[in-house]
Specification:
- The protein is an alpha+beta fold and 136 residues long.
- It has 2 domains: 37 residues; 89 residues, RNA Polymerase Alpha Subunit, Chain A, domain 2, CATH 2.170.120.
- 30% of the residues lie in helices and 33% in strands.
- Strands 6-4-1-3-7 form a 5-stranded mixed beta sheet. A 3-stranded antiparallel beta sheet has the order 2-8-5, with no helix packed on it.
- The radius of gyration is 27 Å and the shape is elongated.
- The relative contact order is 0.17.
């Protein structure tokens, strides 16, 4: 019985330490997002008149118009990220690359991209109406 415990004791101790290290690492990875989400130290800011850019083929981009060329964007994030955030880092786009005026809806959602660490809370208007080119 004593031989069962003492034989390869170094390997057994190494295995136990390695298992404990793996458990603590996984535990930390799982718990870290919960702590970040629970952090009350986030701030919000609203940016008015952010220009909306049209994403389409180069030839088609100038043919379409939008009923609203600007949007208001509310963002939130930790104070250091919000202090470093500049207006030109917020980009609002409307994707018209697969737009077909005969079959598609004339409204499209506004996609807003922001730097890492900043979250988009609200976009007004969330959708814009597309004004297709007039037929000759």
């Amino acid at each position: 019985m004593r031989d069962w415990l003492i034989k390869d004791f170094g390997w057994k101790l190494f295995s136990l330490l390695l298992a404990a290290f793996i458990w603590f690492t996984v535990h930390k990875i799982i718990e870290e997002p919960k702590v970040a989400m629970a952090s009350p130290s986030t701030s919000q800011m609203q940016y008015e008149k952010i220009p909306v850019f049209i994403v389409a083929a180069a030839a088609d981009r100038h043919l379409f118009q939008l009923n609203s060329n600007t949007v208001s964007v509310t963002v939130s994030g930790p104070p250091p990220a919000m202090e470093a955030l500049m207006r030109n880092q917020i980009r609002a786009t409307v994707d018209l690359s697969d737009f077909n005026k005969d079959t598609a809806s004339t409204s499209r959602p506004v996609d807003v991209s922001v730097p890492w660490g900043v979250t988009v809370v609200n976009v007004v208007p969330a959708e814009v109406q597309i004004i297709p080119p007039s037929q000759p």
